[in-house]
Design brief:
Largest sheet: 3 strands, antiparallel
Number of domains: 1
Helix content: 25-40%
Strand content: 25-35%
Strand order of the largest sheet: 1-3-2
Shape: globular
Radius of gyration: 15 Å
Number of helices: 2
Order of helices and strands: EHEEH
């Protein structure tokens, strides 16, 4: 799991931009606030999509 540092004036906008960049829904973006002033600095990472993990497991089981 790779983590990135992003900076900006609005936390919600930062999360949306990260989600758009990785082409996932914002609910899959996890973050830790590093700094709030003068702007937000967040450490962000993407949580694995649960449905993708489930599909992989089902496909794996079905192929054996």
């Amino acid at each position: 799991m790779k983590k990135y540092i992003v900076r900006g004036s609005n936390k919600e906008q930062l999360i949306l931009k990260v989600a758009q960049h990785f082409k996932v829904e914002p609910k899959y973006i996890k973050y830790e606030i590093i700094k709030k002033d003068p702007e937000f600095e967040l450490k962000v990472w993407m949580e694995k999509k649960k449905e993708e993990s489930f599909k992989f497991e089902e496909n794996f089981k079905n192929n054996w």
